[in-house]
Specification:
CATH architecture of the largest domain: 2-Layer Sandwich
Distance between the termini: 11 Å
Number of domains: 3
Number of helices: 7
Mean pLDDT: 91
Largest sheet: 6 strands, antiparallel, barrel
CATH topology of the largest domain: Alpha-Beta Plaits
CATH superfamily of the largest domain: Aminomethyltransferase beta-barrel domains
CATH class of the largest domain: Alpha Beta
Radius of gyration: 20 Å
Helix content: 10-25%
Number of strands: 16
Shape: globular
């Protein structure tokens, strides 16, 4: 589903993202325990690399998407902002006979996205960033008091530097001196929506959408179907074997001048009065576009085909949105 950040080659921008929580995991059984608990394989992650994984409910619904970063003497779990304690407590309930300890750490973050994110970060004092860019899809290294993570977000390479507030202030100043553009929070979220990437509290684990299965929100890439048991595995395998879900995450594009839809707005078609709901929305102006226009993510009933039109009720009346094809730019 990911479409990619519409930037010129050899560029990067600073994106305004919420600082994640960091769960520092130690103990002799840390890798075996996490491998047993999470949807992706942990025991095959090399030191210095990472992988996306999920913690699920017993019914197979998403509790948290996380990055699992393996170091020689510990594992770091990077989880959405404000969820560290809840995720740590959920994991701890299963650690009955395991030698494993969890420490939740608050962080500040500076994140760069774009084709030249690694080179830009290296130029402002993190030389190892260029080496990380050529390695595993997700990798990490430490420099001073900072944890630097390379991953994929906004449909492109993203480098995130996690550390204390003084480190954030200094790095932010150096990036400003280097004339690195900063996207606002609204622009950053629009880039996420354009790339079709779900967010905690919006597309899953939220009141609007309820609890969602990974496949419904495009997170099945964080599942290793060949690994052993984990909480929620049985319903996940049943869904895989059945070959379909009732709901799926899609991107919507509205015409320029249309009102930006409000999350929770009901979608309808001629065949279905209630065909889905908007989960996120923003104003998007990709490179080359004359003016911005509304885009959105929505949970849409599987019977509605890609490329179809859906109707939304807004304060300005009924407007139409196009359900984008997986390969279409937003």
């Amino acid at each position: 589903m990911t479409q990619g950040f519409l930037l010129e080659p050899q560029t990067a921008v600073r994106v305004d993202v919420a600082a994640p929580d960091l769960i520092h995991v130690t103990g002799e059984d840390r890798v075996a325990f996490l491998h047993r608990m999470l949807t992706n394989s942990v025991n095959t992650i090399p030191v210095g690399a990472g992988r996306s994984a999920m913690l699920l409910t017993a019914k197979g619904q998403v509790v948290s998407l996380m990055q699992v970063l393996v170091s020689a003497d510990h594992v770091d779990l990077v989880v959405p902002a404000g969820t560290g304690n809840a995720v740590s407590e959920a994991l701890s309930r299963f650690a009955v006979m395991d030698d494993v300890l969890f420490e939740v750490q608050a962080t500040e973050v500076v994140a760069l996205a774009g084709p030249a994110a690694a080179e830009t970060l290296a130029a402002v004092g993190f030389p190892e960033a260029t080496g990380a860019a050529s390695g595993e899809a997700t990798s990490h290294f430490k420099q001073g008091g900072a944890l630097c993570i390379k991953s994929r977000a906004f449909g492109t390479t993203t480098l995130s530097v996690l550390g204390p507030s003084d480190l954030k202030a200094g790095l932010t100043a150096r990036l400003a001196s280097a004339s690195v553009k900063t996207l606002s929070a609204a622009e950053t979220d629009a880039a996420r929506i354009a790339a079709g990437e779900p967010r905690h509290g919006f597309e899953y684990c939220c009141e609007i959408a309820g609890e969602r299965f990974p496949m419904e929100v495009g997170l099945d890439g964080a599942i290793d179907y060949g690994k052993g048991c984990y909480p929620g595995q049985e319903p996940i395998v049943r869904i895989r074997d059945r070959g379909k879900v009732n709901w799926r995450l899609v991107r919507l594009r509205l015409a320029p001048g249309a009102p930006q839809p409000v999350p929770g707005t009901v979608l309808s078609t001629a065949e279905r009065e209630s065909a889905g709901r908007v989960t996120s929305s923003g104003m998007w102006q990709p490179r080359g576009a004359i003016s911005p226009y509304p885009i959105a993510l929505a949970l849409l009933h599987a019977s509605v085909l890609d490329g179809s039109a859906v109707d939304l009720a807004t304060d300005g009346g009924i407007v139409t949105a196009q359900v984008l094809l997986p390969g279409d730019p937003a």
